[in-house]
Amino acid sequence: xxxxKMIGSIAFSLVxxxxxxxxxxxxxxxxxNNDTTNQQTQTQQNDxxxxxxxxxxxxxxxxxxxxxxxxxxxTTGHYQSVGYINMGDNIATGVVIDENTVLTNxxxxxLSNGDMTFAPAxxxxxxxxxxxxxxxxxxxxxxxxxxxxxxxxxxDKGQSVGDVVQxxxxxxxxxxxxxxxxxxTGYPGDKxxxxxxxxxxxxLTNSGTQLTYGASTFGGNSGSAIFxxxxxxxxxxxxxxxxxxNNGVALTGDVLDFINENKK
Length: 264
Description:
This protein is mostly beta strands. It is 8% helix and 34% strand.
């Protein structure tokens, strides 16, 4: 299953779907397709779960105990490393982890066609404190995990993205366990365009390759950093199970080795 334009989902396996949002100032609709030619358009109010099985990873999951807060001072602390991704028809999230490197999802990079732009610490549609950076190249994790490193060109002043913001600190995900507090920070498509939101929750499970957590997300949160209590990145959000949890790639083992070997 492959999905192109959506607030919703791209499948990287039979049931693994993830969340991006269509680029629109009103964010009025979201689209979920079964292929690139057969599309089903819905309003954001339709959660599209009527025919979904409970175990299916969905494009976005608002949980009953939703705790999302807008981050207005985006240029402080760890928030500055989180950025708004624009791909023309779709939007998503990424996090700066080195001088020229941003971490996001494979399905996000697959939609960009080399035209991704990244605005670190974006405040809203009209306020990009550190400007925008253009995509240079992509290195996708060779395994199943929905993770990719995107390297960006310098800006017109010759600055790298890691020169204008402090890259996030990564902590091995083996350090978090059930009950630990986490936050998912990004640019959900059900809020005003290019506004940063933080969602709070707790780790539900840590399988060693995947984290599940009780923090709500929406389309546009694809590629959002999962921060631990020390504001270190331990995972990368990609989707969730409706009414149960959200899911992310655990940054540990081979995944963490890949990141450290290819960031620059």
